[in-house]
Amino acid sequence: MAQPPSAGAGTGTAAAERPSLTLRRHYRATADKVWRAWTDPQALKHWFGPDEIVAVPIAEIDLRVGGRFRVAMLAADGETHDVSGIYLEVEPQRKLVFSWAWRSTPERESRVTVRIEPDDQGCELVLLHEQFFDEAAREGHTHGWSGALAKLGKWL
Questions:
Q1: For residues 12 and 69, what is the distance between their CA atoms, to the nearest angstrom?
Q2: Distance from C-alpha of 29 to C-alpha of 98, rounded to nearest angstrom
Q3: What is the predicted pLDDT for the residue at 11?
Q4: Beta bridge pairs of residue 96
Q5: Which residues span the domain enclosing 53?
Q6: Is residue 57 in a domain?
Q7: How many independent structural domains does the chain possess?
Q8: What pLDDT digit, counting tens, does each position of 45-73 carry?
Q9: Is residue 65 within 8 Å of 71, Cβ to Cβ?
Q10: pLDDT at 147
């Protein structure tokens, strides 16, 4: 499989030498609309997850520092993928930072930062997912986030 645009491993910090990924996408949409896509449970249900996700039956968001989120995705093969975390930073229309842990592997917590940077033609979304357990986890999430961000672009 070809590497998606703007994907790559980050260098991390000395304290965290674990794999990471950064994805950048430009959307012809306002920062407000992109923010709503990430923070409104009903909006999230329309685009979250890669192509093999056929439905998002659960999207729960308590949008505040210390608040929790949970998303359950139903795959075409009938398997449910359940992820949750805690919001660590919330800057409306600009930045979200949250922990990320799959229900099946809660000990493998990682961290996601979503930045929304407005420009004259819409905005750029920069997604940084760091502190992966291993390279295989990074590769799987690169696939998942790439598909989700493509679906987000169609939804916007």
A1: 25
A2: 23
A3: 44
A4: 90, 114
A5: 21-155
A6: yes
A7: 1
A8: 999 999 999 999 999 999 999 999 999 99
A9: no
A10: 97
Q: Which residues of 87-101 are buried (b: 16+ CB within 10 A; e: fewer)?
A: beebeeeeebbbbbb
CA distance 100 to 87: 9
Global confidence as pTM: 0.88
CATH at 148: 3.30.530.20
Domain assignment present for 15: no
pLDDT score of 17:
85
How far, in Å, CA of 79 to CA of 73, rounded? 8
Q: Which residue has the tokens 């439905």?
A: 55
Whether residue 42 lies inside any domain: the answer is: yes
Q: Other C-beta atoms within 10 Å of 125: how many? A: 24
**Would you give the distance in Å from CA 67 to the centre of its chain?**
17
Tokens standing for 9? 């491993």
